[in-house]
Design brief:
The complex is a heterodimer of chains A (about 120) and B (about 120). Chain A is mainly beta and about 120 residues long. Helix content of chain A is about 0%, strand content about 50%. In chain A, the strands form 3 sheets. In chain A, strands 2, 5, 6, 10, 11 and 12 form a 6-stranded mixed β-sheet that branches. A 4-stranded antiparallel β-sheet of chain A has the order 3-9-8-7, with no helix packed on it. A two-stranded antiparallel ribbon of chain A has the order 1-4. In chain A, a hairpin with a 6-residue loop joins strand 5 and strand 6. In chain B, about 40% of the residues are buried. Classes of the chains: A mainly beta (about 120), B mainly beta (about 120).
């Protein structure tokens, strides 16, 4: 079964600095998708960035980028120029391609941004 | 686009009771998934509905059941509530073939269920 591990329960970053959130996963599939979601206090899951496993190039969305290491099954999120609005819970997720197309989430990392 | 709407936002029930949670999917989405998010944890997949049929189920007992209606809205029903059912229940809608796009899954803000 696919599993997703986020080893950092909580991280802090100074405003305007850079922070990296870690994620590892386990799968036997060769083609899959990985996602980072942000969950603010409003509780709604918001997609931050996605990565297709067959693509070598790391995904980038403005201040957010990933370091995808397929062989190591690692998928870290880098947030540059951190802003107060980035403070939230961040979840790494794997899209399970079989029956149901479910998302498998990690336990999450709380990101605190200091002004 | 109207987004995903869930109701109610908060609910308190007594152990042994039954509860129904509701979800209106985003316009154009015909697939609905339900997730349970216990406090301090990541969401866990309960099940998914596509065209009014269950299309995948996670490791949840049969007392967790669902429905999807012709307008693609959905209900999650939980019977014989237990204290451990206390959690945030999230609904996510999607359109097959677009789940991997930037607009793939749209989540609601959830229903916070407390079982006492």
């Amino acid at each position: 079964a696919q599993t997703v591990t986020q080893s950092q329960p909580e991280m802090s970053v100074q405003e305007a600095e850079t922070v990296t959130l870690s994620c590892t996963y386990d799968t036997s599939e060769s083609d899959y998708y990985l996602f980072w979601y942000k969950q603010p206090p409003s509780r709604q899951m918001i997609l931050v960035i996605r990565q297709e496993a067959y693509k070598q190039q790391n995904a980038t969305e403005n201040r957010f980028s990933v370091n995808f290491q397929k062989a190591a099954k690692s998928f870290s999120l880098k947030i540059s120029d951190s802003q107060l609005g980035d403070a939230a819970m961040y979840f790494c997720a794997y899209r399970y391609m079989e029956y149901g197309n479910k998302l498998v989430f990690g336990a999450g990392t709380i990101l605190r941004v200091k002004s | 686009e109207t987004g995903v709407t869930q109701s109610p936002t908060h609910l308190i029930k007594t152990r042994g009771q039954q509860v129904t949670l509701r979800c209106s999917s985003q316009s154009g989405h015909n697939t609905v998934s339900w997730y349970q998010q216990a406090l301090g944890q990541g969401p866990q997949f309960i099940f998914q509905y596509y065209r009014e049929e269950e299309n995948g189920r996670g490791n949840f007992p049969p007392r967790f059941s669902g429905l999807q209606f012709p307008n693609y809205s959905s209900e999650l029903n939980v019977n014989a509530l237990e204290l451990d059912d206390s959690a945030l229940y999230l609904c996510a809608s999607s359109q097959p073939g677009t789940e991997n796009s930037n607009y793939g899954y749209t989540f609601g803000s959830g229903t916070r269920l407390t079982v006492v």
